[in-house]
């Protein structure tokens, strides 16, 4: 038995030394954030534009293709900077980012429940990560523009509501959705210091709201 144990120990030591001697792969420092993806005239994603205005030029071989030419996509991007203004892209996720529409442009209003993972404002966008109970039907999510009201102190308040139509889907499991309200749509209508009130119906809080400063 002692001899057998000794042989196992020697084998383990050899394997360990071999593993330690191999060159270890160093994973790059990845950045994951909501941003915009700009395409060129051929439909290649060539630039990641952060909400702070930083532009990363994507290296060839990591550019997504078959996209609409000369367009700007709202995405969650995962990339690694490799030079002052160059980056290698690893993955992208779609962000739902339609322009808010007035209530009268909807055939019917739906505010089915969601769970809030996070909501924050950055750059020209109001961003959110929501969890939705789904099974096998495609849900519709967008934004309702309930208008701008004037306040006694001279400021204004923009009122927005989350539109969520589950289309009679069964609540099977939680699925994550990324959304961004394009606040640039209100340039010239809102002023610095104005208020944005975003309402949504949640599983936990019922009808609730979050307030931001434009």
Keywords:
214 residues; mainly beta; five-stranded mixed beta barrel; five-stranded mixed beta sheet; 1 helix; disordered N terminus
Written account of the structure:
The chain is mostly beta strands. The longest helix has 20 residues. The protein starts with a helix and ends with a strand. The N terminus is likely disordered.
Secondary structure elements and pairings:
Blueprint: H1 2-21, E1 31-39, E2 45-50, E3 55-58, E4 72-81, E5 86-94, E6 101-102, E7 115-122, E8 125-134, E9 140-150, E10 156-165, E11 173-182, E12 195-202, E13 206-213
Parallel strand pairs: 3-5, 6-9, 10-12
Antiparallel strand pairs: 1-2, 1-4, 2-3, 4-5, 7-8, 8-11, 9-10, 12-13
Number of strands: 13
Q: What's the total helix number?
A: 1
Order of SSEs: HEEEEEEEEEEEEE
How much helicity do the residues have?
under 10%
- Biggest pleated-sheet summary: 5 strands, mixed, barrel
Arithmetic mean of pLDDT: 90
As residue ranges, the low-confidence spans are 1-21
Span between N and C termini?
Answer: 75 Å
From the alpha carbons, calculate the radius of gyration and give it in angstroms.
24 Å
Strand order of the largest sheet: 1-2-3-5-4
Structural class of the secondary structure composition? mainly beta
- Overall body shape: globular
How much beta, percentage-wise?
Answer: over 45%
């Amino acid at each position: 038995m002692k001899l057998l144990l000794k042989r196992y120990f020697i084998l383990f030591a050899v394997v360990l030394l071999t593993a330690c001697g191999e060159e270890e792969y160093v994973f790059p420092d990845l950045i994951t954030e909501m941003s915009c993806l700009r395409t060129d005239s051929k439909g290649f994603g060539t630039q990641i534009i952060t909400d702070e205005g930083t532009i990363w030029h994507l290296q060839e071989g990591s550019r997504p293709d078959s996209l609409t030419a000369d367009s700007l996509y709202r995405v969650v991007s995962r990339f690694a900077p490799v030079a002052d203004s160059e980056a290698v892209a690893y993955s992208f996720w779609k962000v739902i980012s339609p322009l808010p529409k007035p209530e009268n442009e909807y055939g019917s209003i739906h505010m089915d429940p969601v769970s809030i993972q996070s909501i924050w404002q950055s750059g020209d966008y109001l961003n959110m990560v929501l969890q939705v109970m789904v099974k096998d039907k495609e849900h519709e999510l967008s934004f309702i523009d309930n208008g701008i009201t004037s306040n006694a102190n001279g400021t204004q308040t923009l009122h927005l509501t989350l539109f969520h139509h589950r289309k009679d889907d069964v609540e099977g499991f939680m699925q994550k959705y990324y959304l961004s309200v394009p606040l640039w749509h209100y340039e010239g209508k809102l002023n610095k210091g104005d208020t944005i009130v975003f309402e949504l119906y949640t599983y936990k809080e019922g009808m609730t709201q979050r307030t931001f400063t434009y």
